[in-house]
TrEMBL record:
This is Peptidoglycan-binding domain-containing protein. The keyword Glycoprotein does not apply. It holds the Pfam family PG_binding_1. Residues 1-30 form the signal peptide. Transmembrane segments: none annotated. The keyword Signal applies. InterPro entries: Peptidoglycan-bd-like (IPR002477), PGBD-like_sf (IPR036365), PGBDSf (IPR036366). It comes from Streptantibioticus ferralitis. Residues 53-102 form the Peptidoglycan binding-like domain. Keywords: Signal.
Length: 132
């Protein structure tokens, strides 16, 4: 029974990861109502949105972050690096907080790097704050 349960859990985790990478979780929805993510942002320094930030930065910028859904100093530093180097469209403020402009830039870069013909952000498009 234990083997079946762990095999089922592994299959589910693999499916979710594949859906995120390949953007196959249906049409991605931007979330203009999502709260900003970061240290000092009340109640929004953990959870799915933070995991998405860590996951995306690890794949786009080789950030080396623990994907633990906790927005700590290492995640804030990686966000600042992203903001300083990926400010093409939105003139990002380098503050270590993922607000609507940074979230939009992250999703734009994600689409460009990983699935040019696919959706905009896949699963993570639901969790990051965006401008549109």
């Amino acid at each position: 029974m234990k083997f079946k349960r762990s095999a089922a859990s592994a299959a589910l985790a693999t499916s979710v990861a594949a859906a995120i990478v390949f953007g196959t979780v249906g049409p991605a929805q931007a979330n203009t109502n999502a709260d900003s993510l970061g240290e000092g942002v009340p109640n929004i320094n953990y959870g799915s949105g933070v995991w998405c930030v860590q996951y995306m930065l690890n794949r786009m910028d080789n950030a080396g972050l623990a994907e633990d859904s906790s927005f700590g100093p290492a995640t804030a530093a990686a966000v600042r690096v992203f903001q300083a180097t990926h400010h093409y469209s939105y003139h990002l403020t380098v503050d270590g907080v993922v607000g609507p402009k940074t979230g939009t830039e992250m999703l734009d870069q994600w689409k460009y790097v990983f699935h040019k013909s696919g959706g905009w952000g896949g699963y993570c498009g639901n969790w990051l704050p965006t401008t549109h």
